[in-house]
Design goal:
By secondary structure, the chain is α+β, with helices and mostly antiparallel strands. The protein has two helices and five strands. It has a single domain, classed as Ubiquitin-like (UB roll). A five-stranded mixed β-sheet has the order 2-1-5-3-4, covered by helices on one side. The N and C termini lie far apart (44 Å).
Length: 92
């Protein structure tokens, strides 16, 4: 299964500075587990202590926010693109 995962700058130290990596799995949860197996530390930065997406991390599948699909159970298929985006807050 060919899934492209877009990695934000803060996590690229874990992926050898790669901005896009291949991912695998039939769901977002499985894809995160796949990433963790190859890039240790990804999971703890994306998921909180309860195993849910961190509050200030947004994840999109083909541009759609997974919180409005099925969260970690959101299905993935060949050709999908997953984007991990840290939320930005603040301002003047």
């Amino acid at each position: 299964m060919a899934i492209k995962v877009r990695i934000p700058q803060p996590l690229r130290g874990l992926t050898g500075n790669e901005s896009v990596v291949d991912g695998g799995g039939a769901s977002l949860s499985a894809c995160i587990a796949d990433l963790e197996s190859r890039f240790p530390g990804v999971k703890e930065r994306v998921l909180d202590d309860t195993g849910e997406l961190r509050r200030f991390v947004n994840v999109y599948i083909n541009g759609d926010d997974v919180r409005f699909i099925d969260g970690l159970n959101s299905p993935l298929k060949d050709g999908d693109e997953v984007s991990i985006v840290p939320a930005v807050a603040g301002g003047a």
